Known about the structure:
The chain is mostly helical. It contains 13 helices and three strands. The protein has helices at residues 2-15, 20-39, 50-59, 69-88, 115-122, 131-146, 150-154, 184-202, 222-235, 244-257, 262-269, 274-277, 279-295; strands at residues 161-162, 167-171, 177-181. Strands 1-2-3 form a three-stranded antiparallel β-sheet, with no helix packed on it. The protein is globular.
Amino acid sequence: MREAIDGYLAHVSIERGLAANTVSAYRRDLERYATWCDDRGIGSVGDVQENDVADFAASLRQGEVPLSASSAARVVVAVRTFHRFCAREGLSAADPARYVRPPAIARRLPKALPYEQVAAMIDSALDAESPIGLRDRALLEFLYGTGTRISEAVGLDVDDVDLETRTVVVTGKGSKQRLLPLGEFAVRSIDGYLVRGRPALATKGRGTPRMFLNSLGRPLSRQSAYGVISAAAERAGVKQAVSPHTLRHSFATHLMQGGADVRVVQELLGHASVTTTQIYTMVTADTLREVYATSHPRAR
């Protein structure tokens, strides 16, 4: 079983080019599955039956520490793609997971901040002319101005940004690149950081092409970037929990509210399917209902 898992992970890593974090998540989920099979005396992937996969899927939502529907669905998807690979490669006579479905996940609307709160976060940088203050403002402007994932932002190199054409090349999931526009506010903040902030931070390090640096001149980590955002939200008086994804949600929601086409938003966010992006049309519809309910004399 574990030899088959190793072969599958090598396949998704090398041939499909999945990100290292995705491969690590698959490894954890499939190790959980292999351990479950070991406990039931199933040692070979060819011995697995459909009822075994179904029982494993059901076990994820039971026990002392049951997984949430979304986490269980992720594990089941990993098992399904693993067995599909094994059947295709001749490691098993059939695909026992073919008809096993992951649990349904309740669809939750993204929580976006009002624009005024986003602006307050960006303006809240402590000592705005210090290297760290310039970096924090540039990071916040970049995240909200492009809708990038936090991993894409901290993985950015200086050469990826072209301030003259006001564009940036972002490397997303699966090492796929996309060209994004930069707004005037983001351009001004990044320019100020590159001229007056980053050089001071870079002198403390050993040299790195990364755009965003920490106080030691090393590449800013995702955890540190998360801390920058949380601190800015606290200073701005934002009551709800704010994560890097909150700014991404806000970027997409504000575009949709402004009349942007869902296909354009899909390209900007780097979504493989427009179905993922369409959740933001639900946010817009929800806003329309609120305005209607409070404005129309016959709404209630």
